[in-house]
């Protein structure tokens, strides 16, 4: 576990895997989670790639900064982590809001991006009314009353059983995120529209959907894939919004297959 201060915001990150000589993949977590959502996927890629994961601001052990945020704030943090590590031309894998951050990084620092994996995300997620309602609710009541609804979008019914300790652990993960980090990131999602950016992406791009995703359903992810020239689209079965947790083997396999076909650097 390592820390770096980017523009006075402390960001927690990890570097794992094969080391500098291999291609680098940077993973961006979703709303209400931290970098541990990648824990089951990283070991499946670690022999062949250098793997960077981090807690975006307002989540995990990273600083809160000054919410509400813009997606560009999150993307500047990500650029800061990559610059700090001395990498360029990396593969960016972002889940949900992480996919918005990935598109923003591509728009602002294309020099850092070799390929994009846009997972369970879109060019635009939800409506301003939906996000304003969610922000008002979480700021008034905290995350507790929202857990069941959120989990119903994140995980399939088969996963959401009390006997599943992992399911209960992910409820804990959500509940332990700072409310201001959660609501601040909701504001960033509300204000983000990457439609024009998506149409102009010129690096290899894979769009991943979860068959039962209640947050960014397959048809929404498909609409992103339709915008990105030459992109690939893949649906992971038996998974919802966070397939890296529910279907890590399938998730790692589709990433591997995509990266095997990348042109050489
Ligand atoms: O997961 C995200 O990063 C944002 C999408 C969302 O609304 C997640 C949820 O359903 O709570």
Automatic annotation (TrEMBL):
GO molecular function, one term: 3-oxoadipate enol-lactonase activity
AB hydrolase-1 domain mapped to chain residues: 25-253
Annotated EC: 3.1.1.24
GO biological processes: beta-ketoadipate pathway
Sorted UniProt keywords: Hydrolase
Hydrolase keyword on record: yes
Matches recorded under InterPro entries: AB_hydrolase_1, AB_hydrolase_fold, AB_hydrolase_sf, PcaD/CatD
SUPFAM superfamilies tied to this protein: alpha/beta-Hydrolases
One GO CC term, this protein: membrane
Gene3D superfamilies: alpha/beta hydrolase
First-tier enzyme category under EC: hydrolase
The keyword Amino-acid biosynthesis is assigned to this record: no
Chain segments annotated as coiled-coil in the UniProt record: none
Pfam families reported in the protein's UniProt record: Abhydrolase_6 (PF12697)
Protein name: 3-oxoadipate enol-lactonase
UniProt organism field: Endobacterium cereale
Gene of this entry: pcaD
């Amino acid at each position: 576990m390592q820390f770096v201060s980017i523009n006075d915001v402390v960001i927690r990150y990890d570097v794992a895997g094969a080391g500098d000589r291999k291609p680098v993949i940077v993973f961006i977590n979703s709303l209400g989670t931290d970098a541990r959502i990648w824990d089951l996927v990283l070991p499946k890629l670690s022999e062949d790639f250098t793997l960077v994961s981090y807690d975006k601001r307002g989540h995990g052990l990273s600083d809160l900064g000054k919410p509400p945020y813009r997606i560009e704030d999150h993307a500047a943090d990500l650029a800061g982590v990559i610059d700090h590590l001395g990498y360029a031309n990396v593969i960016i894998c972002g889940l949900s809001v992480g996919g918005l951050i990935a598109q923003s990084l591509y728009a602002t620092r294309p020099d850092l991006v070799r390929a994009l994996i846009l997972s369970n995300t879109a060019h635009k997620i939800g409506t301003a009314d939906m996000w304003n309602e969610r922000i008002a609710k979480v700021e008034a009541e905290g995350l507790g009353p929202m857990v069941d609804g959120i989990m119903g979008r994140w995980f399939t019914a088969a996963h959401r059983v009390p006997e599943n300790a992992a399911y209960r652990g992910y409820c804990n993960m959500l509940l332990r995120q700072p409310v201001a980090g959660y609501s601040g990131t909701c504001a960033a999602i509300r204000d983000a529209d990457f439609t024009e950016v998506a149409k102009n992406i010129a690096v290899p791009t894979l769009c991943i959907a979860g068959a039962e995703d209640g947050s960014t359903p397959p048809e929404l992810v498909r609409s992103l894939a339709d915008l990105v020239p030459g992109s690939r689209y893949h649906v992971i079965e038996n998974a919802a919004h966070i397939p890296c947790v529910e279907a890590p083997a399938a998730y790692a396999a589709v990433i591997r297959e995509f990266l095997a076909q990348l042109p050489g650097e």
